[in-house]
Amino acid sequence: MEKLPKSGIIALIVIVLLLIGLFKSAVTIDSGHAGVVHETLGEGVDPDKEALGPGFHIIAPWNRVIDYETRQQEMPEKMSVLSSNGLDIKLDASVLYEPDAANLGKLHNQKGTEYKSRVLQPAIRSAARSVVGRYTPEQLYSSKRDAIQDEILEETKKIVEPQFIQINDILIRDVTLPSTIKEAIERKLKQEQESLEYEFRLVTAAKEAQKVIIEAEGKAESNRILSASLTDKILQDKGIDATMKLAESPNSKVIVIGSGDSGLPIILGNQ
């Protein structure tokens, strides 16, 4: 077997090294991710340098890329906090967040890839303790939940946004109170509901009674006006009209004997 010349061996080694260097230099960033470049021969990550976006990139083979997901992510969090009267309240929440893509270099240098546990979790817990401590268990359980959720969001933003983390929303999925407190609140809410229903019935009944009174008063006034307008002459004319109609009926036999009051005939007998 013929040996390779020394120059050929050197060329082969150079080619292999170039291929290895090219392989280490080629970096692909996935969609929804970005990468910060750590310069091994320099000062690490340049905080002012723009991160690598999705796609194919070539870097120096002695450098490396630290990958960050830049899409919105969810962090479930279960917390135990105290209400304004010192009762233990358990919150089940979700935090929707993402790193500040424009400042990934600064985020990496200051907090690193573990920024979630170093910044986000302590911030949400601190904000929740601060906000929930202003409210009673009853407010947490019913009317104030949305307001509390918004306040926790704003408190968390104040802590994390200066540290290059973007908070999109905080969702409180469940509030767990001590069983005795929960039962007492539910009884009170039920009683309040029954009281409101009773008040509604009273108001409805009062309106119906007022309606009957108004109708009766209207009818009485109508009768008074009618009575005042009926003179003896009008009554006599109406009596004559009624007598004439009765006399014309084929089913009646009319006998007129003398006259009744007001000069009207007396009607006897019919079939």
From TrEMBL:
Residue ranges constituting the Band domain according to the UniProt record: 25-189
Pfam families: Band_7 (PF01145)
Sections of the chain in a coiled coil: none
GO cellular component: membrane
Predominant cellular place of this UniProt entry's protein: membrane
Compartments it resides in: Membrane
Membrane-topology descriptor: Single-pass membrane protein
Protein name in UniProt: Prohibitin family protein
Organism the protein comes from: Psychroserpens burtonensis
Lineage: Bacteria, Pseudomonadati, Bacteroidota, Flavobacteriia, Flavobacteriales
